[in-house]
Task: inverse folding
């Protein structure tokens, strides 16, 4: 059995929608008229709070529209759109790692945005494995159709995070480095099928 550390990292959504979450907390303020004997001051105060919340809601809608445009709607901002990631420290080949992820309802992680790459890169700095602290990710060379580097999600590689002089070996799979060689924190390296490494699985939250 592969040892793993599972963590539902919703900070991806939280980072993209920090202002939205702040506004949502403000909406939890309970508004009520105490009774028919409320003073004029209390009524005016309630009306002022209502106007403030309406204004915040409009700002929130504008922020969400801008964030969705900037991030190609990868995350809609709702918690259900976050992904859960499991970090498996025992090594497998790339194919074996993918089969393990799929068996548990997910797949190897697809780092489709800079935001996602940053979160995963930072998280693995607190982990270790016995394979130079390398981690299989869901990036492979699609030699049959697109003839380019493609995520297992089907999307092409859109972030350039290769180690120096990589890819160069003609190997079809990719690992993400913790920081070996030094200075390669979170960077990609192409590897052969017979290379064992830790691996990172991803699946939608709640699955």
Result:
């Amino acid at each position: 059995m592969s040892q793993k550390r599972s963590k539902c990292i919703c900070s991806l959504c939280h980072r993209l929608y920090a202002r939205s979450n702040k506004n949502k907390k403000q909406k939890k303020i309970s508004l009520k008229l105490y009774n028919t004997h409320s003073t004029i001051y209390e009524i005016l105060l309630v009306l002022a709070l209502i106007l403030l919340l309406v204004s915040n809601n409009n700002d929130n809608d504008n922020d969400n529209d801008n964030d969705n445009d900037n991030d190609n709607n990868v995350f809609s901002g709702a918690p259900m759109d976050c992904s859960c990631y499991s970090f498996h420290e025992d090594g497998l080949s790339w194919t074996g790692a993918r089969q393990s992820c799929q068996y548990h309802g997910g797949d190897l992680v697809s780092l489709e945005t800079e935001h996602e790459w940053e979160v995963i890169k930072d998280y693995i700095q607190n982990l270790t494995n016995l394979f130079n602290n390398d981690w299989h990710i869901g990036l492979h060379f699609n030699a049959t159709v697109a003839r380019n580097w493609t995520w297992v999600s089907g999307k092409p590689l859109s972030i350039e995070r290769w180690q120096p002089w990589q890819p160069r070996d003609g190997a079809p799979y990719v690992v993400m480095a913790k920081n070996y060689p030094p200075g390669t924190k979170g960077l990609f390296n192409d590897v052969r099928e017979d290379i064992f490494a830790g691996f990172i699985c991803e699946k939608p939250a709640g699955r």
Residues 11-38, 63-80 have pLDDT under 50 and may be disordered. DSSP finds five helices and eight strands in the chain.
